[in-house]
């Protein structure tokens, strides 16, 4: 009895991977074994970097808040401590946006906690 293989599913799986690797450099876009490895590695990077993106943005927000706070004579930690004590619940993303794009609103927040 001949061996039965599901060629339809195999081809569909290969087409899915080759479509995803379109635009990759060299053989990574058209040679099945290379493309499969690059595809899997790309998924690993995507998973890792979704976590890293959150860390990077938090660090950026802290730098922006710190820069804005120092203009008004406070350090980042002093400002955050004062906000906590005054029970003002603004997250770092909002504070960073205020510090960058709305300096008068950020100044009002700083004056409120001073």
UniProtKB/TrEMBL annotation:
Role summary: Binds directly to 23S ribosomal RNA and is necessary for the in vitro assembly process of the 50S ribosomal subunit. It is not involved in the protein synthesizing functions of that subunit.
Gene giving rise to this polypeptide: rplT
GO cellular component terms given for this protein: ribosome
HAMAP family: Ribosomal_bL20
Protein species of origin: Belliella filtrata
Keyword Nucleus annotated: no
Family matches, as PANTHER family: 39S RIBOSOMAL PROTEIN L20 (PTHR10986)
UniProt-recorded name of the protein: Large ribosomal subunit protein bL20
Keywords, ordered alphabetically: Ribonucleoprotein, Ribosomal protein, RNA-binding, rRNA-binding
